Amino acid sequence: MVVTESAQVTGAVSAAQAVPMTKPAGTRNAVRAAGLVVAVLVLLAVLVLSVGLGARQLSVGEVWHGLFGDHSAASTVVREMRLPRTLLGLLVGAALGVAGGVMQALTRNPLADPGLLGINAGASAAVATATGLLGMAAFESYVWFALAGAAAVSVLVYVVGGGRGATPARLTLAGAALNAALFSYVSAMMLLDSGSLEKMRFWTVGSLASAPAATVVAMLPFVATGLVLALALARSLNALALGDDSARALGVRPAGVRVAAMVAVTLLCGAATAACGPIVFVGLMVPHLVRALTGPDLRWLLPYCAVLAPVLLLGADVLGRVLGRPGELQVGIVTAVLGGPFFLYFARRARIARMART
Amino acid sequence: MSVVRLPGDRSVRFHPRTLAVGTGCALLALAVGVLTIGDGDYPMSPAEVLRTIAGGGTAAQDFIVNELRLPRVVTALLVGAALALAGALFQSLVRNPLGSPDILGFTQGAATGALVVVVAGGGSLALAGGAVLGGTVTGLAIYALAWRNGVHGQRLVLIGIGTAAILTGVNGYLLTRAQLMEAARAVLWLTGSLDGRGWDDALPLLAAMAVLVPVVLLGCGRALHMIEMGDDLASGLGVRVERVRLTLLAAAVLLASLAAAAAGPVAFVALTAPQVARRLTEAPGPNLLASMCTGAGLLVAADWAAQRLFGGHQLPVGVITGVLGGGYLVWLLAVERRAGRI
Q1: Which of residues 81-120 of A touch B (CB under 8 A)?
Q2: Which residue of B has its CA nearest to A111?
Q3: For residue B66, is it within any domain?
Q4: Does the N-terminal or the C-terminal CB of chain A have fewer CB atoms within 10 Å?
């Protein structure tokens, strides 16, 4: 067993370093920085698209006038509906993408995702308790419940899966079981009170549609703190990937870094889930796609995730608006249906199957 | 392990403790069932209940027992047994105590089938049919996706979880498409409920189990014991591993889907019953019969608790099993982690 475990760890590390490191460091960083600029430009394009597309189409000029011009029909649509929604997508996407990247580094598990491992479900269960039993309706009051729920589950998942013996399949299975338990609790809450059913059945799918501007403002501090904390930890998490002993030799305290990383994940996932419901697969897909671009260095991987995850989430949201016309498909459904095949492809790949088999 | 020698060079091997636990759980399940039948707005003593079932009660008693309360208890017993058997098979095939149909996507598939019927406005018979169809199609899809020179347990787990996540998204979408009344009915079904179950819910499940249970227990039970020791060893001992695995998976998917059709996807019975049975019997191997008896007892007892424990408020049985199962799951995760199996 000991042999297979160390084989897994080396397998994970060597897989993470699959991108060859042949170019000199200066050129590589220049390429990465240029890539990040391109990614930001793509994000800006998707932001404009998200403000412009929907039940009422707006041209780029109308979007511009809606944002900065006088009062008109277009400016009402843009300022009251599309802009809060787009900003919410931006924050939630960045939060989930970075949380996924941190979790994959922390658990050394390529299949870690805040949705799959039950952290979003923990926040959901806490929000269901707050809205169903305690009658809370405002984001500012139940966000604390969401954070507590996310914290409880992330500690639990870490205790179960943080050990050296946890294979990807086993950790994922433990997360799926937790997910099932928490969602059966959420559906029990919905069943006891048809008023909360009416609200919750849209929320549990994961939707950006109903967010008022106040929610965006209220979640900003949580997400900003989480993002800053995660980016600040990138260097220490890099050291931790070499193993605890090497990390200590490099001046990093493993226990402290792990606790801080879990605080960051909790802040990001709890706030994102409280704002728009549980969304799966964003935190799984984006770090993997980004790793192909940047390599395993978290100092580059996490910023890329923060920029490209909103591209994916807002893209899914726009797709849901276009496909579901005249209504719309909730973004959680689009990410589940788009991300699921990605996960299946990934699970079928030989390397993961081999890792799972040991 | 005890052996009874029969005339003509035959022998039967059995595990005395397993036999005792199985019998005990079965008797307990029946006893709780009789108590549940006697309990209600028209209370009856256990003796009266038994006499009425045997055909010796008054007309009123006969109606209350045989038409109203007995079908519900029989459905509970059968659904519990079917889910537990399906769970025991899955846990043995994927070699993980957490591998149960509600986690690996099969139950979600049944729910998708049922929700499509609800959104289309179909009746309860069509709903049951939709559940069976959805579960079977999902089972086939997962098997096909997990196939690569044979189906390996861990790949089945990952594919199943991915499928479950996709289908959860689809189910949520279907739920948002339904009218509020239908959505409430769908959520009730999704939680798992035994309210108002009659003979036409119990009998199809009974017929299916009459075929499937002998196939599983007598036809594949020994082969499953061998497969638990590893594929190579099993095929060395003459077991056709892939064929047995396909048969057992098909049986388990059918059992889980039919149970879902009868009572909805009752959470966590399939997960907990085999584990409880394993701890009671302390026997190696899949413990199929003991799991069935435990599952039946578990669901009947949970249904009684859901009806009686909350004063005038009757809850669907799935809420009780969900909450019990969730607590049990956390404990199981802790124990399995300490033992290094997760």
Answers
A1: 111, 115-116
A2: B158
A3: yes
A4: N
pLDDT score at A11: 43
* Interface predicted TM-score (ipTM) of this complex, two decimals: 0.73
Q: Which residues pair with B12 in a beta bridge?
A: B4
**CB-closest option in B98, B165, B191 to A174:** B98
User: Measured between alpha carbons, how far is B241 from B93 in angstroms, rounded to an integer?
Assistant: 11
Secondary structure E strands in chain A: none
Q: Please tell me whether the overall predicted TM-score, pTM, comes out greater than 0.90 for this model.
A: no
The answer as to whether B10 is a domain residue is no
Q: Is A319 on the interface with B (CB under 8 A)?
A: no
CB-CB neighbors (< 8 A) of A198 in chain B: 180
Q: What is the pLDDT of residues B45-75, one digit of tens each?
A: 888 888 888 888 788 888 888 888 899 999 9
Q: Is residue B8 part of a domain?
A: no
Domain span at residue B218 reads 19-338
* CATH number of residue B332's parent domain: 1.10.3470.10
A66-96 burial by CB neighbour count: b if 16+ within 10 A, else e? beeeeeeebbebbeebbbbbbbbbbbbbbbb
pLDDT for residue B251 = 93
DSSP secondary structure string, A196-230?
A: HHHHHHHHTT--STT--HHHHHHHHHHHHHHHHHH
Q: Is the dihedral of CA B311, B323, B159, A206 positive or negative?
A: positive
CB proximity list for B204: less than 8 A, separation 6 or greater: B128, B258, B261, B262
A191, A323, A328, A345: which to substitute to probe chain B, counting the most B Cβ within 10 Å? A191
- When computed from its CA atoms, the radius of gyration of chain B, rounded to whole angstroms, is 20
Total domain count, chain B: 1
- Specify the pairing of strand B2-6 against strand B10-14: antiparallel
For A72-129, write each residue's pLDDT tens digit.
777 777 777 788 889 999 999 999 999 999 988 887 777 788 888 888 889 888 888 8
| CB B178 within 8 Å of CB B186 | yes
Residues near A27 by beta carbon (within 8 Å), at least 6 away in sequence: none
- Dmax over CA atoms of chain A, in Å, equals 69
Residues of chain B with pLDDT under 50: none
Establish if B143 belongs to a structural domain.
yes
Give yes or no for residue A188 having a pLDDT over 80: no
Q: What is the DSSP string of B62-115?
A: HIIIIIIIHHHHHHHHHHHHHHHHHHHHHHHHTT-TT--TTTTTHHHHHHHHHH
Boundaries of every domain in chain A: 89-357
CA distance B33 to chain A (A): 25
